[in-house]
Amino acid sequence: MKLTGKLFLIALATSLLAIPVWMYAQEKERPTFRVKVDMVVLSFTVTDSKGKYINNLKPKDFRITEDGIVQKLNTFAEGNKPVVQVLEDGSTKPLLGATEGDPKAGPDVRSDAFVGTNVFVLFDTSNYMYRGFVYASDAIADFVRGLDRADSVAVYTFSRNLSRPSELTRDRNNAILGLRKAVAGDDAALYNALLLTLRDAAKVPGRKVVIVFSNGPDNASMVAPDDVRAVAEDEGIPIYVISTSEASKDAISAGVFKRLSTRTGGRTYFAKTWQKQVEAFESIREDLGNSYTVTYYPQPNPNEGFRKVGVEITTDAAKKYRIRARPGYRPHGGF
């Protein structure tokens, strides 16, 4: 029986840790992963030439396209401000008059589903992180404490296997308690763990990001990083990477990290010292607080492959601004 779309993703993710590495290595063709997308969630940042965030833009200031086809926005939000529904004329109103936790809102447009960001922190606890483990743990704890109160956070750890010491929560103390339970040891299966984390994040409605804290080397995964990247790209989940090593010391991992982040709308930081790691987390926190998030239902499009997403600013100042967003996604299931 052939599995497609999310069924295949779930079957693969739940069986990853049970498949011997040598069996995967003997496969002549490695699988690719595709996820069917109905409502598209698109997050992006707007900055000027000096890197300063541009705030207070409105839905009418943007033009979103897929393969050149203009899309009608469904909802719009800036940072952690309340989500608004976009009307036909480009004006906005509170999302169905709902407030956080209002059960009267529909299942696809509940305002509380889009309040804040669902942040998944994936912490490398392999042997490679042994020396800087305590400092890394402290940097993550500081980041969790500083998140906006509307944000939810999950703390996952990995070496050869993935652990979920703290599921998605708004309780900062609970998240940090889970973090402090982590211990360093064993090989590193980063891309296996990242796929499983993306699987969890994909189940959560609204805006979500994955932050990978790792020094880079992966010596135990059974999936290719670009296949994992494709899942994040299709699901609209930005990946931020903080690497504790210098890019020049591991060019292969550095290149993979940059592809993962660039293709999903995130960023990569090479932060060898504890202070640089703290600064990287602060930069990510600023990104989350200054990003725009829109949702839309794609207009009819015969393209069943990769759809190129474009974000344009319609004002005269557009030429002065820079937009960072994922380049597109694949809408259909199958492999």
What distinguishing features does this structure have?
single chain; 335 residues; alpha+beta; Immunoglobulin-like; Rossmann fold; six-stranded mixed β-sheet; 8 helices; 27% helix; disordered N terminus
How many DSSP E strands?
16
Biggest beta-sheet profile? 6 strands, antiparallel
| Number of continuous helical runs | 8
Oligomer: single chain
Radius of gyration: 20 Å
CATH superfamily (homologous) name of the largest domain: von Willebrand factor, type A domain
Distance between the termini: 13 Å
Stretches where pLDDT falls below 50 for ≥5 residues? 1-11, 17-36, 97-111
The name of the CATH topology of the largest domain is: Rossmann fold
**Structural class designation:** alpha+beta
- Identify the CATH architecture of the largest domain: 3-Layer(aba) Sandwich
Helix content: 25-40%
Order of strands, main sheet, comes to: 6-5-4-13-1-15
Bulk shape: globular
Query: Which CATH first-tier class of the largest domain would you pick?
Result: Alpha Beta
The total domain count is 2
The amount of beta strand, in percent, is: 15-25%
Calculate the mean pLDDT score and round it: 83
Q: Please write the string of helix (H) and strand (E) elements.
A: HHEEEEEEEHEEHHEHEHEHEEEE
